[in-house]
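With this grant's support, we have paired protein sequences with backbone structure tokens. One protein thus recorded is set out beneath this paragraph:

_____
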Amino acid sequence: EVQLVESGGGLVQDGGSLRLSCAASGFTFDGSAIGWFRQAPGKEREGVSCISNNDGSTAYADSVKGRFTISSDNAKNTVYLQMNSLKPEDTAVYYCAAAGYGLEYDLLMSKYEYTYWGQGTQVTVSS
């Protein structure tokens, strides 16, 4: 079965850093779009950063550009999200998602294009 397992969340202070990991299995990892999405209480799930493992292209939400970096290690079937200069407004449950196949760049950040979802990892940034 397809599995996406997130790890690396936790509690950090304003300005701190975390690195999230998403370990994937059960599908062709290097042929799939992989994304990080987040959801805060009472808010809709939104795209944070996504990567196309076909060609390595990446996309970021405007709110995290310059602070977050997505990367992929195909040998380990793992995607990472390095989060620096964290702000309280980054507080949310962060989910890893996979389409299971490649996506057009314009669709990379669309949650509706992703078939498989992890259980999420909590990120809390204190002020």
In short: The mean pLDDT is 96.
